[in-house]
Amino acid sequence: MGFVYPGAYWPIGFWPTRYWHVIGDSPEPPPTIIPDVGWVNGAYALVVVADDNGIPIGELAAEIDGLTWVLNEFGQARLTVPNPGTAARLMEFGNRLLIYIDNGLPPWSGFIDPPRRWRYGAAALTAYSGERLLTHRVTGRNRTLNATPGAILTTLLKEQAGRGVVETGRIDMGGDAVSGAWHYDELYKILQSGLFAGFDFHVTGAMENGRVVFRLNLYQRRGFVLPGVVLVEGHNTSGVDVEEQGPIVNQWFAAGAGNGWGDTDRVYSEAAAAGSIAQIGLRQGGKTYSNVRDKTTLDMLTAAELAGSADAYFSISVDALNLTPARFADYDIGDTVGVEIYSVGDGYRGERRVIGRNYVAARGVVETVLL
Q1: Arithmetic mean of pLDDT over the chain
Q2: What is the pLDDT of residues 137-176, one digit of tens each?
Q3: Strand 237-245 relative to strand 313-320, pairing
Q4: Residue 113, exposed/middle/buried by CB under 10 A (0-12, 13-18, 19+)?
Q5: Pairing state of beta strands 348-360 and 336-341?
Q6: N or C: which end of the chain has fewer CB within 10 A?
């Protein structure tokens, strides 16, 4: 079994066809029908390290404790280096990582940052995915833009101070025009603000022309609906946890930017969910958007707040195994997959969107969160 080189995935649907046989056995053992668990969930990994300019400087011999991917947030990698004395340069803060795993999970990319722990002669490293690099760049003062979210993002990326930490990737330029004003605001916080409600973003890392490059991608919705990919309790999932979450707010009041609170000093908006109010009573919330000055943008943001809070929502967490009909390579963050659960209530069968994955190398499972 050889290593799957960077840029490739473990071939989907490939299984070992024979056990290793003992010399003298005749005939050879018949083809294996079900592969052993160590083969299915085991993984070979390659950790490529580049400096903060993206120039590769080596490969890091490290044990992978965990890798996380999160929708519209930054993920994390936890690595243990058994012999850090010979890898000091590879472990410097700011170094970029590309981690390839041959179990079907997508390559993980990010950079080394604190905390870093030393114990029993080993080093425990923490790395964060490329989305966190957006916290390292801020806008100028009094920066005002009126355009589609994609156009705003493209402009702000071009205006990064110094060498850009993230380059432009696939940016969706659709949607309605919105307006905003910023004063030394982090690009990461802008992407998570209400102006980008209804959009998804993530940063990909790849080797391009001999450099590790991070690119920011923006979608009106990330992922696909995959009807043939199903997580089935007792087969390719275990450890099912279902939780109803809140808070519930069924009436929102919002205000835009301004210098006073009179009727004409700033724009205002209000939205309510009559069905939720009738069922559980009135639950109000208020919010001020200091960078919004037009009514259309404020109404859109208020409606988005209400849509996400009018009712409780279900969060499903499972430990996913690398088995059909939902092998690790078959789905990714943002995808909608089938879910079948039998241990909770009267059971559940439906479709849920993948919003988080945490690869636990020691157990060979991916802790998966679905909404």
Answers
A1: 87
A2: 999 999 999 999 999 999 999 999 888 899 999 999 998 8
A3: antiparallel
A4: middle
A5: antiparallel
A6: N
pLDDT 10s digits, 15-73: 333 333 444 545 544 443 333 333 334 568 899 999 999 999 999 999 999 999 999 99
CA 243 to chain centre: 20
Report the predicted TM-score, pTM, of the whole model to 2 decimal places. Answer: 0.80
Sequence-distant (≥ 6) Cβ neighbours of residue 118 within 8 angstroms:
84, 124
Which of these, 92, 89, 96, 99, lies nearest to 62 by C-alpha position?
Answer: 99
Distance CA 367, CA 371 (A): 14
Q: Distance between alpha carbon 352 and the CA centroid of its chain, in Å? A: 16
Rounded distance between C-alpha atoms, residue 334 and residue 350, angstroms: 16
Q: Which two tokens stand for residue 110?
A: 């990010």
pLDDT at 14 over 60: no
Residue at 296: amino acid letter: T
Separation between Cα atoms, residue 202 and residue 216, nearest integer Å: 6
